[in-house]
Each structure stands twice: as C-alpha cells, then as structure tokens.
Design goal:
Elements lengths: L3 H17 L5 H4 L10 H6 L4 H11 L5 H8 L21 E4 L2 H10 L4 E7 L2 E8 L2 E7 L7 H7 L4 E5 L2 H10 L4 E7 L5 E6 L5 E6 L1
Parallel strand pairs: 1-4, 5-8
Antiparallel strand pairs: 2-3, 3-4, 6-7, 7-8
Helix pairs in contact: 1-4, 4-5
Length: 209
C-alpha cells in the first residue's frame, strides 16, 4: 500500500488541477454523492478545500473517509473494543412437557395471548411461545412427566411468570374462558397471583411483578 505521504501529494495535486481549471478533475468531484448532479463548469467553480480533495482520494482508494485511509496507511489498528470477561445470565426459559406441541401452542396463542415463535418437526415435537418478555418452550413427550395426583397434592408448577398488572391479565383471561386452577388471590407474601391449566394439565402461575 502507498504511504500516507503519497496520498497527501495526490490530494494536493487535485487542488492544483482545480485551481488551474483542469476539466479532468470535474468527474472525480462528481464522485462525491453531494456533487453528483453538477456539470463540469459548476464543479470547477466550487470552493474546493483540501478536506474534499482528501475525501476523493480516500473514496477512490476504497475507504469511507480520509481518517480511515490515514489509519490504514499508517499501519495503525483501531483500538479493540473492551470485552467483558464476566459471564452474564440473560434469561431462563421454562420447558413445558406436552402430548401435542401444535395443540398446546394454539392454546397459548388463542387463549393466553402468546405468539408462536416456532414449531420444529413434522409433526412438531418442539416449539416456543412468547408474550412480551416471557418465553416458554414446549417439548413433546409420550407419557406425562408428572403424575396428575402428585401435581394436585404438591401444587407443582411447570412455569412461574411475573406480570405487570396481573389483575388486568386475569380479567383478560376470564373473557377468554381460560381454565383456572386458582383464580386471582392474594398470597401470604402479599402479592396477587392466579394459576391456569394447559391442555395437558400443566400449571402455569402468573404473579405480580
């Protein structure tokens, strides 16, 4: 690659040609997007500072700016971005085990207001549904993972979802005829919750954030 001094000389040469009225430079000036529609005469009448000559040289050399050309010609490398070495856990996604991924996905979409993110397989054996900041993954199983009587006895949840304005969501679900395990109630720790049951009997609890 030529030295930076070579590129500086090329830019100064463009300035000299412009002052001399050399029409060969007009087409190069029109290489700048803002001057694309000028005629040769108009291009030669422009005020033509060194910075614009340098910009032309940079673009013709394949760089987006004179600063980028200077960095490359000087052999300088941009300072690397600082990278965090500390791990950061972003989210946890509950896994719901179901006998039919498509049917359960439709239940979450049509009754609970979720979106179906994807269904994998034909027939689908894995999928994802989400609403706002919450996502649930659905996994096909041939037999129930949790025995119904144990779920009822131990009040076993398959997912716990924090909600802003949980009361409004409960009212929404009432109008959708959602099957509830528990309707809206105040927990001993003070927050309101309600619990719904999916087509496979899984309990999904919604709680005030």
């Amino acid at each position: 690659m030529p030295t930076l001094d070579t590129f500086r000389k090329q830019a100064k040469q463009l300035l000299r040609w412009h002052r001399e009225g050399n029409y060969s430079i007009a087409g190069r000036i029109r290489g700048l997007a803002r001057y694309r529609d000028l005629t040769d005469v108009q291009a030669l009448k422009l005020k033509f500072p060194l910075s614009e000559a340098q910009e032309i040289i940079a673009l013709e050399t394949g760089f987006g700016s004179w600063a980028a050309l200077k960095t490359a010609a000087s052999g300088e490398s941009p300072a690397p971005k600082a990278r965090s070495t500390a791990p950061a856990i972003k989210a946890a996604i509950p896994m719901i085990f179901v006998s039919s991924v498509p049917s359960t996905a439709e239940f979450f979409r049509d009754r609970l207001g979720f979106s179906i993110d994807f269904l994998h397989g034909n027939p689908a054996f894995y999928g994802s549904v989400s609403r706002d900041g919450a996502a649930l993954h659905l996994r096909f199983v041939h037999e129930p993972v949790i025995a119904p009587e144990i779920r009822e006895k131990e009040s076993l949840l398959s997912a716990f979802i924090a909600v802003e304005n949980v009361k409004a969501l409960f009212e929404e679900y009432k109008t959708n005829d959602v099957p509830f395990v528990w309707t809206l109630r105040k927990e001993p720790w003070g927050g309101p919750t309600f619990t719904v049951r999916d087509p496979d009997g899984n309990w999904i609890e919604f709680s005030a954030a």
